[in-house]
Structure formats: C-alpha cells, structure tokens
C-alpha cells in the first residue's frame, strides 16, 4: 500500500468534497480517500500495483476538478 496527497483546485463546498471522494474511492485499487476542503487536498491510500498516480488524477479530473 502507498499513500499520496493530491492538491485539488476547484472545490468550493462539501458537495465537491463528497464528489471527489466518491470518484477516488470508485477507482480500482484505492483503499481510502480523505478529502479536505480547507486544505484543498485529498490523502489517498491505494495499492500501487493496481493504480497509478495518473489514474488517481484522472478520476479527479473526470469528477470536474483539477489536480495541481
């Protein structure tokens, strides 16, 4: 298991937080995703043999936000 922190732009409310968390958790290989609105980030625990950082970023982008 690996853990990474993704800086996310575009979140403005708790609905945004839930949307990003749902997108990340739905990605195969993700064990957990904790999204923080005030910090503008997501801390993701995942199996690095099953999912890459690019796929995590893609999930956030598909949810309508930007990873910086």
What can you see in these coordinates?
The chain has a single domain, classed as 2-Layer Sandwich (Alpha-Beta Plaits), CATH 3.30.70. Helices cover 32% and strands 34% of the residues. The chain has a four-stranded antiparallel beta sheet with strand order 2-3-1-4, with helices on one face. The longest helix is centred in the N-terminal third of the chain and has 12 residues. The model has no long low-confidence stretch (mean pLDDT 97).
Please name the defining characteristics of this protein.
68 residues; four-stranded antiparallel beta sheet; Alpha-Beta Plaits; single chain; alpha+beta
- Report the sheet-strand fraction: 25-35%
Q: Sum up the overall morphology in one term.
A: globular
Computed over alpha carbons, the radius of gyration is 11 Å
End-to-end separation in angstroms reads 23 Å
Helix content range: 25-40%
- Largest sheet, strands/sense/barrel: 4 strands, antiparallel
Total DSSP E strands? 4
List the helices and strands in order.
Answer: EHEEHE
Q: How many separate helices?
A: 2
Please, what is the average pLDDT?
Answer: 97
Number of domains: 1
**Low-confidence spans: pLDDT under 50, at least 5 residues?**
none
Assembly type of the shown chains? single chain
The strand line-up of the biggest sheet is 2-3-1-4
CATH architecture: 2-Layer Sandwich
Main CATH class: Alpha Beta
């Amino acid at each position: 298991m690996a853990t990474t922190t993704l800086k996310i732009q575009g979140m403005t409310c708790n609905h945004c937080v839930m949307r990003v968390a749902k997108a990340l958790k739905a990605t195969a290989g993700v064990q957990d995703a904790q999204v923080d609105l005030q910090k503008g980030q997501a801390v993701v625990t995942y199996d690095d043999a099953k999912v890459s950082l690019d796929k995590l970023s893609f999930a956030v982008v598909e949810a309508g936000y930007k990873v910086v």
